C-alpha cells in the first residue's frame, strides 16, 4: 500500500497544505456502449458508442489499485452498460476471483436486459459465485425515458431474492415508488422533469448532461463561476474512472485524461500525478474552468451568459477545445464529447 508521500505533488506541499488523497476506488468502464442515451450521461454513451476494455487491462488496473490501496481497494464495474457484454463481464469477474483480487464492490446496470426471471437468477447467481458485492440498479427520470419500468421491477424483486435486500441498491428508490411516465409529457413538462431531477440528485453537468440539461438549469454568471477553482476536486478525489481504452479520469471529471494505464500502471499514474504540473489541469486547479476562457475566446469560443455550474462551463469550453483539436491527449476521448452536430441536434430535442 502506498503512502501519501509517494505522490509527487505531496512531496512539494507544505505541512499545512492539502495533500492528494490516495485513490482507493476505480470505476472500470468496460464499454461506452449502452442501449439508452440518457440526457444526463456523464459521458456520451449510447447504442452507437463502442469500446471494450480487455480483461487483461481490467485485471492489471485492479492489481495496480491494490498496490495503491491494499485491502481498502474498491472496484466497481460499469459502462456504458456492462450487461451488453455480459459474457465479458462474467469472464473478467471469474479471472479476478481466481487471482484472489477480492470482491467487486458494485456492478452497475440500467436493467434493460431483465425480461426473463430465470435468466436473471442464473446471471446474478453466477456473478455472486465469483465475487459480486452489490448490484446497483440505475433508475431515475433520465433512465425512465429509455428503460421499461417492468424490467426494473422484475430485476429489483429477483435480485433481492438472489442476493438479499442489503446487496441491491436502486438509485433512486423514490422514483420506483413514483415513476415518471415520459411518453405522456410535452416538451415543457419534460424540461421541468429533467431540471428537477438534476437538481434533486445534485448530478454533475459533464458529458451529454452539460449540452442537454445544462442550458435548462443555467443560473450562474461567469463572474460568479470565476471564484470556483478545482483544487479540491483533484486533491480530494477518492478514486478514478478508467475507460475502455485505458484513459484515466480523476473522480467524476470525465473527458480530462490524466494518464493511460496502457502506458503506465495506475499506481504509478497516482505517484506521478501533480495537478499543478499537468497542462489544462493546472489551470483548472488554480483558476477553475473560467481560467480556460481566455484561450478559448481567443480561438473563437462564444460563452453563454449563464451556466448551471462550474462543470457545465468546464464541459462547454472542453467541447470547444475538442471540436478544434486543442489539447489533444488531455481533452478526450471522443466518447466523452458530443461533437457540434450532435449538440445542435440534442438542443433541438430538449429546447422549444
Ligand atoms: S469544473 Fe471541470 S475539472 Fe473542475 S470539477 Fe468540474 S469537471 Fe472537474
Bound molecules: iron/sulfur cluster
Overall average pLDDT: 94
Quote the beta fraction.
5-15%
| CATH structural fold name | TIM Barrel
> What is the CATH level 1 assignment?
Alpha Beta
Account of the 3D structure:
The protein is built from 16 helices and 10 strands. The chain is α/β, with parallel strands linked by helices and 352 residues long. The model has no long low-confidence stretch (mean pLDDT 94). The strands form 2 sheets. An 8-stranded mixed beta sheet has the order 5-4-3-2-1-7-8-9. Helix 2 packs across helix 3 (86-98) and helix 4 (117-129) crosses helix 6. It has one domain (22-350): TIM Barrel, CATH 3.20.20.70. The longest helix is centred in the N-terminal third of the chain and has 15 residues, at 55-69. The protein is globular and about 60 Å long. Residues 206, 230, 233, 253, 256, 284, 289, 310-311, 314 line the site of iron/sulfur cluster. Iron/sulfur cluster binds at residues 206, 230, 233, 253, 256, 284, 289, 310-311, 314.
Question: Strands, helices and their partners?
Answer:
Layout: H1 8-11, E1 25-29, H2 55-69, E2 74-78, H3 86-98, E3 104-109, H4 117-129, E4 132-138, H5 141-144, H6 149-163, E5 168-171, H7 174-177, H8 187-200, H9 207-212, E6 220-221, H10 222-225, H11 231-235, E7 239-242, E8 247-250, E9 257-260, H12 266-272, H13 281-287, H14 293-298, E10 306-307, H15 310-324, H16 340-350
Parallel strand pairs: 1-2, 1-7, 2-3, 3-4, 4-5
Antiparallel strand pairs: 6-10, 7-8, 8-9
The protein binds iron/sulfur cluster (SF4).
Amino acid at each position: 500500500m502506498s503512502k501519501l508521500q509517494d505522490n509527487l505533488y505531496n512531496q512539494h506541499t507544505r505541512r499545512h497544505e492539502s495533500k492528494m488523497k490516495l485513490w482507493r476506488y476505480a470505476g472500470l468502464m468496460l464499454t461506452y456502449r449502452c442501449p439508452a442515451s440518457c440526457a444526463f450521461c456523464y459521458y456520451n454513451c449510447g447504442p452507437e458508442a463502442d469500446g471494450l476494455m480487455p480483461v487483461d487491462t481490467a485485471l492489471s488496473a485492479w492489481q495496480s489499485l491494490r498496490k495503491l490501496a491494499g485491502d481498502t481497494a474498491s472496484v466497481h464495474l460499469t459502462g456504458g452498460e456492462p450487461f451488453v457484454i455480459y459474457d465479458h463481464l462474467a469472464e473478467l469477474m471469474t479471472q479476478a476471483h481466481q487471482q484472489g483480487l477480492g470482491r467487486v464492490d458494485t456492478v452497475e446496470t440500467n436493467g434493460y436486459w431483465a425480461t426473463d426471471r430465470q435468466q436473471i437468477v442464473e446471471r446474478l447467481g453466477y456473478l455472486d459465485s465469483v465475487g459480486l458485492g452489490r448490484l446497483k440498479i440505475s433508475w431515475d427520470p433520465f433512465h425512465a425515458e429509455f428503460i421499461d419500468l417492468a424490467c426494473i421491477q422484475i430485476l429489483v424483486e429477483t435480485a433481492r431474492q438472489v442476493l438479499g435486500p442489503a446487496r441491491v441498491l436502486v438509485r433512486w428508490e423514490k422514483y420506483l415508488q413514483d415513476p415518471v411516465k415520459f411518453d405522456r409529457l410535452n416538451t415543457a413538462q419534460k424540461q421541468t422533469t429533467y431540471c428537477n431531477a438534476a437538481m434533486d440528485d445534485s448530478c454533475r453537468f459533464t458529458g451529454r448532461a452539460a449540452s442537454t440539461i445544462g442550458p435548462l438549469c443555467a443560473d450562474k454568471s461567469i463572474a460568479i463561476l470565476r471564484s470556483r477553482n478545482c483544487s479540491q476536486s483533484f486533491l480530494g478525489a477518492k478514486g478514478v474512472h478508467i475507460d475502455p481504452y485505458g484513459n484515466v479520469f480523476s473522480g467524476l471529471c470525465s473527458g480530462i485524461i490524466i494518464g493511460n494505464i496502457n502506458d503506465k500502471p495506475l499506481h504509478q499514474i497516482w505517484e506521478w500525478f501533480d495537478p499543478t504540473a499537468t497542462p489544462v489541469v493546472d489551470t483548472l486547479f488554480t483558476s477553475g474552468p473560467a481560467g480556460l476562457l481566455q484561450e478559448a475566446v481567443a480561438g473563437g469560443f462564444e460563452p453563454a451568459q449563464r451556466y448551471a455550474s462550474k462543470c457545465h462551463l468546464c464541459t462547454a469550453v472542453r467541447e470547444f477545445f475538442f471540436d478544434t483539436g486543442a489539447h489533444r491527449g488531455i481533452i478526450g476521448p471522443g466518447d466523452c464529447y458530443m461533437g457540434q452536430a450532435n449538440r445542435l441536434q440534442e438542443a433541438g430535442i430538449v429546447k422549444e
